Amino acid sequence: MFSIYCSEICSQVIIKAIFLLPSGLDRCTTMNYPALTRHQRRRIQTRKGLVQAAVELVIEKGYEAVTIQDITDRADLGRGTFYVHFKDKEDVVWSAIQGLILELEKEAHQQYKDSIPDHPEYRFFRNIFRYADKNRNLFRVSFGERGSAALTRRVQDLVVAIILYDLQDGPVLRDPTSNVPAEIVAQMMTGLITRMISWWLDTPNDYTAEQMAGMIYQALYHKKPPTVQP
């Protein structure tokens, strides 16, 4: 359900996802685990500061212009501390993006674990675009000119894997071209979604998230998009 059927809860999830994932230790704060120790809380706060600094700087300056020294200066931490948590600049920015996507996926599964809403394919596209609209800067880092080709490829690979799962094993996405292998369909849908998000955010236009989702739905499924609420 990469979907982000949970569009309405994205604003609450984003901070938790960016700052607490992907570390299994950090996930303890969102589950019913024993209380964190003082050391663990400091570790989370340090990681939070580094990730927040990295994302802010990439948004301000562009990925290529940002250095690890910039990140540690902004976070007011030493370079040695940075390398305790991350391998390099790509690792810290990727942790924000990956954590966000995976946490939203988890939230969607929890919210819709008992039933699938009507027209899940359209909701999938609509809520991605709604979420992109609310979080334009982070999406520009993921797909736009201020990010990097390597990050974009990693995001695309993750989205492919999630879509492929739903095509093969989950009930959420129907295969719009049943005679084509699921792997090809997942690659096609990912390319279409990510390119359209990038174009929509970077090119002046008046299309709403609902209109963008509707056009993609119509192109893939060859029928008019449904009217669904919310």
Report the portion of residues in β strands. Answer: under 5%
Radius of gyration from CA coordinates: 18 Å
**Strand-pairing-aware structural class:** mainly alpha
CATH architecture: Orthogonal Bundle
Give the overall silhouette. Answer: globular
- Sequence stretches where pLDDT stays below 50 over 5 or more residues: 1-31
Overall tally of domains: 1
Please name the fourth-level CATH homologous superfamily. Answer: Tetracycline Repressor, domain 2
The tally of beta strands, per DSSP, is 0
Mean pLDDT: 78
CATH class: Mainly Alpha
Largest sheet, if any? Answer: none
Query: What's the order of the H and E elements?
Result: HHHHHHHHHH
> Helix coverage percent of residues?
55-70%
